[in-house]
Amino acid sequence: MEVRSDGVPVRCDKIPAPVIPRTRLQVWFIRVCSSILLWTCLVQLVAVGELWHPHFFNNITNRISQIAMVPRAIQSPPPLLPARKYKSNGFLRVSCNGGLNQMRAAICDMVTIARLLNLTLVVPELDKTSFWADPSNFEDIFDVRHFIDSLRDEVRIVRRLPKRFNRKHGHKPLQMPPVSWSNETYYLQQILPLFKKHRVLHFNKTDARLANNWIALDLQKLRCRVNFQALKFTPQIETLGYKLVRILQEKGPFVALHLRYEMDMLAFSGCTRGCSEKEAEELKQMRYAYIWWRDKEIDSEMRRSQGLCPLTPEEASTVLQALGFDRNTQIYIAAGEIYGSERRLAGLRAAFPRIIKKEMLLAPEELQQFQNHSSQMAALDFMVSVASNTFIPTYDGNMAKLVEGHRRFLGFKRTVLLDRRKLVELLDMQQNGTLSWDEFTVSVQSVHEKRMGQPSRRRVIADRPKEEDYFYANPQECLCERRSCDDLISPGNSTAIG
Q: Do 423 and 475 meet the contact criterion of CB atoms below 8 Å apart?
């Protein structure tokens, strides 16, 4: 109680407390917290939705990544799916052979086989003995935790074999390469009984061991799920890959040219067009040095006329001009060291001055962690190629096929699939004066009008699987969820050049 000057008592609790205005700092803090909460809810919504409608939410997620300038690799992961309950018939070990994209396709196949046979898959081992001699392990290239978790509703995957199956405990797993291009019947009738006897099988070769066609639809879709969702690059690779893409996009539209004019490809294929006698001999010696490369004596010109050689840098330059690309086109070289180095790139660079390689866009210290790791460097080129406005491979190797399939999955992004057999014929005619430049240009564009990566059916050759279209280049079973394939793959589909 207090007393006024006139003697009247006053109750202190009736006096209202003074209103303290919020400071600018408090208002700012509330706004920041609200923004964070809203963004978190939105990202979680997209992550959950991606499980059910991946095509629809892919565009939304890309927009969020661009606005927030945050790579998808570090956004909140989707909630874990319930693990599949099944009695395992044994453990499958696999040693993948080849380069990054050959191994990538093999991993997808091995997950699918493990699912078919109810096996426990051990995280795949990567090739360290090929030409590239890359010491990278699976977890150096792919996000192993994501790989295991994202497939837990389909296949049980472990990082390593239980100790009781180690050699130290006297266990010797059966090692074998499965028969190439095999279907479900082969694995169920020939391979599954071996697990009942040995418990552990080690597939020491995995390239092209599952058929392209006549595989159950749910297994084909699982191959796609592994390829497009489960095989995610490590955060280090994704962060740098996104940076490369962002730098290129800021400079305008760009073409990713997979210029497969590299030493290993030329030695393996025997293609020496444009090489000196000394270089041709060097390539021949390299071919003989690798005993598992079967063909030794090769007629280079015959191979070229059959369309079995990668285009030279000079040929690629001429074809790009004929396709309508002007000299201001931004071209990213998605490849390793070009054989002959800058000397062989001179003509291409003269025609297209805006030739760019990753070494020109990134600081040396940024690429340092990937040096001497060819598969990790190839992963960067893979990301850029998938994101490019136009992708043009000069040879239809594993990277070209895997990127083509990825771009189809993302909405049939433009991919120029060069008809090398026809092109070398046209190139020779233009060079010897039989065809004028205008006639050459019209012919090149006409040949490729329907070779732009637009919807098409996968070619099937029942008795010659090596010659038919590769599943991962055109996974049509995974592209027709919202409408029938007959509607999607209609006559007259084409993509204009521009």
A: no
Q: What pLDDT sits at residue 43?
A: 45
Q: Where in the chain is the domain with CATH 3.40.50.11350?
A: 233-260+309-453
Reply yes or no on domain 233-260+309-453 having CATH 3.40.50.11350: yes
How far apart (Å, rounded) are the C-alpha atoms in residues 482 and 486? 12
356: amino acid identity, one letter: I
> Residues near 13 by Cβ (< 8 Å), separated by ≥ 6?
none
Instruction: Find the range with the poorest average confidence among 16-20, 99-103, 208-212.
Output: 16-20
Reported pTM: 0.82
Residue 113 and residue 155 in contact, taking contact as beta carbons nearer than 8 Å: no
Q: Give me the pLDDT at residue 59, please.
A: 44
pLDDT band at 56 (very low <50, low <70, confident <90, very high): very low
Angle formed at CA 240 by CA 396 and CA 232, multiple of 5 degrees: 65
Match domain 89-228 to its CATH number in 3.40.50.1980, 3.40.50.11340, 3.40.50.720, 3.30.2160.10: 3.40.50.11340
Output the CA torsion 132→136→137→142 (10° steps). -100
- Nearest to 198, CA basis, from 161, 159, 168, 171: 171
Nearest of 475, 472, 442, 438 to residue 456 by alpha carbon: 475
Q: Quick one: pLDDT at residue 408?
A: 97
Token digits of residue 303: 């191979």
Maximum pairwise Cα distance, the chain: 121
CA 120 to chain centroid? 25
